[in-house]
Design goal:
Elements lengths: L14 E5 H7 L5 E5 L4 H10 L9 H5 L3 H10 L3 E5 L4 H15 L5 E5 L2 E2 L8 E2 L2 H16 L7 H13 L3 H7 L1 H8 L3 H7 L9 E4 L2 E4 L1
Parallel strand pairs: 1-4, 2-3, 2-4
Antiparallel strand pairs: 5-6, 7-8
Helix pairs in contact: 5-6, 6-7, 8-9, 9-10
Length: 215
């Protein structure tokens, strides 16, 4: 397969956005990677950290996710700081990025990776667009922009503007989405509604030595 042109790596921008493990590999290296798998890897991790419960490398959340968990592992392998983000904690993630940037004393590149939905665990399985991850990634980009980290790629801007335009409808969109309907059918509607609560959480989970802890 021919190499993709360098122009798609979004290297000119501080805040970048793409989809899945392939998207992470496509982007220029970033100091911070935000993994967005709203339904429901990110939201599961956020809920655990809110409850004061670190998510260790053997936790069920890792074993049951083929989307966000895969992105998180790939991101950790790059040496980046890896955060779990979504609608529920977008502002907390932005604040964590700002603290990291201030600590480094230098502009910090941020890759916001929407996990999407793999249709199977087979190698090369296609990735399905997931509206909840588009909105979650947009919420994170919007929160970053609100605190001045706003040199965004067109891809990041498009996600941000979709969130801004649809913010008032995110609960409906998540419960009506394919992923949301699947969870509702499994009597997990409360988890979908919780994942749609914008900035309801003040925690930004960070991946350290295979475990998610509070940043």
């Amino acid at each position: 397969m021919p190499a993709e042109p360098r122009h798609v790596d979004q290297a000119a921008y501080q805040v970048r956005m793409d989809w899945g493990v392939a998207g992470l590999a496509r982007l220029a290296p970033a100091e911070v990677v935000v993994v967005v798998d709203v339904l429901r890897f990110s939201s599961t991790v956020i809920a655990a950290i809110e409850a004061g419960e670190p998510v260790g490398p053997d936790a069920e959340a890792w074993a049951t996710s083929i989307n966000g968990a895969g992105v998180a592992r790939a991101a950790a392998a790059t040496g980046a700081v890896v955060l779990a983000g979504g609608l529920r904690n977008a502002r907390a993630v932005a604040d964590a990025v700002m603290r990291l940037q201030e600590g480094r004393g230098a502009r910090t590149g941020v890759a916001v990776i929407a996990a999407g939905e793999l249709v199977s665990t087979d190698p090369g399985a296609p990735l399905r667009f997931a509206v909840e991850d588009q909105l979650g990634a947009g919420a994170v980009v919007d929160a970053l922009a609100a605190i001045g980290i706003d040199h965004c790629s067109p891809e990041a801007v498009a996600a941000c503007e979709s969130f801004r335009a649809l913010r008032g409808a995110v609960r409906h969109l998540l419960t009506a989405s394919g992923s949301g309907r699947e969870l509702v059918d499994r009597d997990l509607r409360d988890q979908v509604v919780a994942a749609a609560a914008v900035d309801a959480a003040s925690v930004a989970p960070v991946l350290r030595d295979g475990a998610w802890v509070a940043a």
